[in-house]
Each structure stands twice: as structure tokens, then as C-alpha cells.
Design brief:
The complex is a heterodimer of chains A (285) and B (249). Chain A is mostly helical. Chain A is built from 13 helices and no strands. In chain B, the strands form two sheets. Chain B has a six-stranded mixed sheet with strand order 5-6-7-3-8-9, sandwiched between helices. In chain B, strands 2-1-4 form a three-stranded antiparallel sheet, covered by helices on one side. Chain B has eight helices and nine strands. Chains A and B meet through helix 8, helix 9 and helix 12 of A and helix 3 of B.
């Protein structure tokens, strides 16, 4: 077969691993649209980046306990969830108690998380190449069991993000006013960081730790250029993320390119061309 | 100021507040009676905004106590409609005018889910009072400075507050709109207490019953006794430079 897109489509009907990948991309895209819009408007993308890198610590620790101590339930994805939530809570508490030290802690967790992950992986006997694939994404290796966890996380993120939309909007727009209206802003800020953490885990399976920050910010940034209300931004951003992941998967499949990197290049190209295009358009008019 | 309607909505007792050991307010004591229209005036850096933040419980006094609406400032704050002077807002933030005003309805409903029809009606009503109802769907960030300020006043009104605290509500507003705004606030002060921070003493004195003069120390004058003498004392006693704005609508 010489048509790569045709090959992708015909294999999609045959191979469960490709179906899993597609579903994972769609699920992650929906959460990413909602949380990415909060992250961009609240300007906490470096926090998202830090959380993403601590995930390697969680992945490595989980695999270590799974292999060395025979904790079968302790899959790498659960380790990722635990590490991401822990990082979110630590960063949240530090930023509330000692605002001026926030970026130091963000940077420290970023590095410590990676270092812990590398150490755990080095001490785990056997073949652990696939853990390193989490750095660059492993969407084609999503198992059916992973898919259930991804679906559960996605549901939780979307439900909480939508249910408390008004509170999160007020928190991102004008924190002091939200506090005066009786919104428990500390609590909602922590909740927002936890949603970010769960979304990061979803995206790690799709594009990998290193490129999470791009997928969480680029679609929201593009959507922000074309929308005037936060929930419009979320809907457009979710659609864009789903398009990017699906297109990346389809384009990379034929020539056997890495899917995560392809997704990011597509997202980045759309972001750059929309930013440049809009500037030129505004200059002309 | 003595109580006019029997009840005081604000009682400040011997309050001192310092930033890093530097006193911003010293031995402040005054009261604001129910349904009064009061202005807080004073030079820049004299402690007006600090006093407001103390009244909202956003800052804690170093010494002394405040009672607002019969309780502590932090408990009373949801019953107060507040318009801040400087809001540091992201110039690209995607919100409509109505979205912003609806934030004033926060804390009225269940605490989750969308705003009710009643909330939307109250928000639109607040916009109407400020003659901004035509702009409800406009992006907030596309408005002029004066329009934004009126939207933030509408947001404070949408709280259906028992007391309004407005920090420099006329800073970016043209003189005609300024007169209109003070007429509106004057009307509102028949049912609720209205406190307006201003550095434009000449203008507000036509409308308010009392002036709270803040320049590290606080003095309260009924409007009738605000003479040139008082103004000079207020501005010249502790600072040498006075920036005067004269606006004549």
C-alpha cells in the first residue's frame, strides 16, 4: 500500500493498539482543552512543566516497586498520578505560604523528580527502555487497562473543571475579588493545580514528559487568539488538541515517525502560523 | 462622627497598621453610620487604600480592632460591594462584560454550577444602572479605561451589598459621567451605606455627608465644616507636595 493515510485508516480498523492510541489522544485532548485554558489564563505553565517532570520520578518508583517488590497493581501510570498530585500540592502550599520562593521550588521539583526517576530506573533489574519512552511519548503502547485509567482521569478533570467554572474563572481573572465574594481561593488554587497534574499525566502518555508543556499551552494559545470568552476558548482548544493528536498519529504512522514529536510539530506550526497570520491581518486592516 | 440613624456599620477603634515597621495608619478611630454617604480623602500614599483593605479584612491591623456590619471584617466582606482601584488584569483575558459583572454574584448561589436566571437579571440590572447594558457581550478588555471602571462598579453593585466601598471610582471617568455616578450613589445611599475613596475633595463634598480624612492619622469632618483650612491641614501637615485635580462638570 503506498498511500500512508490509507494505511493508517485500514490498520485502525484492524489493530487495537492503534484504536487505543486514538481514543487516548481524544480523551487527553478534551481535558487538555479545559485545563490548558485555565493554565494559560492563570499563567501557571511553568508549574505544569515542573509537575510533568516529577512524573518521571513516579513512573520510575512505580516500576521499581512493581518489579523488585512484586507490587503488581503498582503500574507506572499510577506512580505518575501520585507523583503529579504530590508535586501539585507541594507547589500550591509553597506559593500560598511563601510567594517569593515559588519559582525556586518549581525548579527544584522539576530536577528532583527527573533525578529520582533516573535513579529508580537504574536500580530496577530487567529491560526498562520503555520507561524512557515516557520522556518522548508512548501513545502506541497504551494498553486497555491504561485506557480505563485515562478515561477515569479525563472524566474527573472535565467534571470538576466544568462544575466549578465560575470559581476558576474568578480565580484566574481577579483573585482578590473572588476572595471577597467568599470563594475559598487557596482551596480552589490547589484544586486547579491538582487538575493540572492529572491532565499532565494524561498528556504524558500522548506526547511524553518533555513535550507536555507544549500541548497544554499551544492549543489554548491558538484558541485564545480567536475567542472572547473563557469557555469558548476551552471548546476550541479541546477541538484543536483532538485534531492535533489525531493528525499527528495519522501522519506519523505511515513513515514510522515518533507520534509525540509529530503531534507537537503540528501544534507548533499551527500556533506560529496563526500568531504570524493574525499580526499580518491586523496590520493590513 | 456621631451616629445619625442610631446604628454604626463601621467602627474602627484605635487601629494602627504598619508595613515592615513603617506606620501607614496610626491610632485611627472613627465610625460610619448606617445609610451614610461618606468619602475617604487624603493624599496619595496617605493610607486610604490600606484603610479600605483593613475594612475588608484583606489586611489585619497591627493594633486595634475593626467592626464592620456588626461582625469582623472577614465575615462581613461578602455583604460588601467592593471596587478596587488598580486591578492588575491580563490584557488578553477572555471575558465578556457580563461575565465580569456576574462575578459579583459569586457566593450567592450553590457554590457550583452555572449562574441562575436571577443572578443574570441582577447583573444586567447593575449594568443598566451604569448605562452599560448595550455592552454586555463586548470583550471586557476591548473597553476604554472609563468603561472598564464602570463595569467594575456594576460588579460591586451586582453583589446586592449592604455597603459599597469604591476606591477612586471616577479616576478614568469623564466629568459628565462622574456627575451621573455621584447622583446614582447618592440615590443608593438611601438604602445602603456608600463609602467612596477620592482625592477630589471639592467635587465629592457636594454629595457626601461626611469626609474621612486619611493621612497616616484620620480625622472626620461633617461636610459643612470642610473649609479651606481643613483641606490645607490635611494635605500640608505631613506632606509638602499636593497634587490637585480640579474637575468641573
Amino acid at each position: 500500500m503506498n498511500n500512508p493515510m490509507g494505511e493508517f485508516l485500514s490498520d485502525l480498523t484492524r489493530y487495537p493498539f492503534l484504536q487505543h492510541a486514538l481514543i487516548a489522544g481524544v480523551l487527553a485532548g478534551v481535558a487538555c482543552g479545559i485545563v490548558g485554558s485555565y493554565v494559560v489564563t492563570k499563567k501557571i505553565s511553568t508549574i505544569a512543566g515542573s509537575i510533568a517532570h516529577t512524573v518521571l520520578g513516579g513512573l520510575g518508583a512505580a516500576r521499581y516497586f512493581q518489579v523488585v517488590h512484586r507490587w503488581d497493581w503498582c503500574t507506572p501510570l499510577w506512580g505518575a498520578v501520585a507523583a503529579a498530585l504530590l508535586a501539585a500540592v507541594v507547589i500550591g502550599l509553597v506559593s500560598m505560604k511563601a510567594r517569593q520562593r515559588e519559582d525556586t521550588v518549581i525548579g527544584a521539583l522539576w530536577a528532583i523528580g527527573m533525578a529520582a526517576g533516573i535513579l529508580f530506573i537504574s536500580q530496577t533489574p530487567g529491560y526498562n527502555e520503555d520507561l524512557m519512552s515516557y520522556l518522548f511519548g508512548s501513545i502506541l503502547m497504551v494498553s486497555e487497562r491504561d485506557l480505563w485509567l485515562i478515561a477515569g482521569l479525563d472524566l474527573a478533570v472535565v467534571a470538576v473543571g466544568a462544575l466549578f467554572y465560575n470559581q476558576f474563572l474568578a480565580l484566574c481573572f481577579d483573585e482578590e475579588f473572588a476572595r471577597l465574594r467568599g470563594v475559598r481561593v487557596e482551596w480552589f488554587y490547589l484544586l486547579l493545580l491538582c487538575l493540572t497534574a492529572l491532565t499532565v499525566v494524561l498528556l504524558v502518555t500522548v506526547v511524553g514528559i518533555i513535550m507536555v508543556i507544549a500541548l497544554i499551552t499551544l492549543p489554548a494559545a491558538v484558541a485564545g487568539e480567536f475567542t472572547k470568552r473563557l469557555w469558548h476558548m476551552m471548546v476550541l482548544s479541546a477541538i484543536l488538541t483532538v485534531v492535533f493528536t489525531t493528525a499527528g498519529l495519522a501522519v506519523s504512522y505511515g513513515p514510522n515517525w515518533p507520534a509525540g514529536a509529530t503531534i507537537i510539530v503540528i501544534a507548533g506550526a499551527v500556533y506560529l502560523s496563526s500568531a504570524v497570520g493574525l499580526r499580518l491581518f491586523r496590520l493590513k486592516s | 462622627m456621631s451616629a445619625m440613624n442610631g446604628k454604626n456599620v463601621v467602627t474602627v477603634s484605635d487601629v494602627t497598621f504598619s508595613y515592615d515597621g513603617v506606620p501607614v495608619l496610626e491610632d485611627v478611630r472613627f465610625t460610619i453610620p448606617e445609610r451614610a454617604f461618606v468619602s475617604i480623602v487624603g493624599p496619595n500614599g496617605g493610607g486610604k487604600t490600606t484603610l479600605l483593605k483593613l475594612m475588608l479584612g484583606l489586611l489585619e491591623p497591627s493594633r486595634g480592632t475593626l467592626e464592620v456590619l456588626g461582625t469582623s471584617p472577614a465575615r462581613a466582606r461578602t455583604r460588601i460591594g467592593y471596587m478596587p482601584q488598580h486591578v492588575q488584569l491580563d490584557p488578553q483575558f477572555p471575558v465578556s462584560v457580563l461575565d465580569v459583572v456576574l462575578m459579583g454574584r459569586m457566593g450567592k448561589g450553590t457554590g457550583w454550577g452555572p449562574y441562575s436566571r436571577h443572578d443574570r437579571a441582577a447583573a444586567l440590572d447593575a449594568l443598566r444602572k451604569l448605562e452599560m447594558e448595550d455592552l454586555e457581550d463586548r470583550p471586557f478588555m476591548a473597553l476604554s479605561g472609563g468603561q472598564r471602571q464602570r463595569v467594575l462598579i456594576a460588579r460591586a453593585l451586582a453583589c446586592e451589598p449592604e455597603m459599597l466601598l469604591l476606591d477612586e471610582p471616577t479616576a478614568n471617568v469623564d466629568p459628565a459621567a462622574e456627575t451621573g455616578l455621584f447622583e446614582l450613589l447618592h440615590d443608593m445611599s438611601r438604602t445602603i451605606t456608600v463609602v467612596v475613596v477620592s482625592h477630589d475633595l471639592g467635587f465629592v463634598s457636594h454629595y457626601v455627608q461626611a469626609v474621612v480624612c486619611v493621612n497616616r492619622r484620620v480625622m472626620v469632618h461633617p461636610t459643612s465644616s470642610v473649609t479651606g483650612e481643613v483641606i490645607r491641614d490635611l494635605y500640608l501637615s505631613d506632606v509638602c507636595m499636593v497634587r490637585h485635580h480640579h474637575r468641573h462638570g
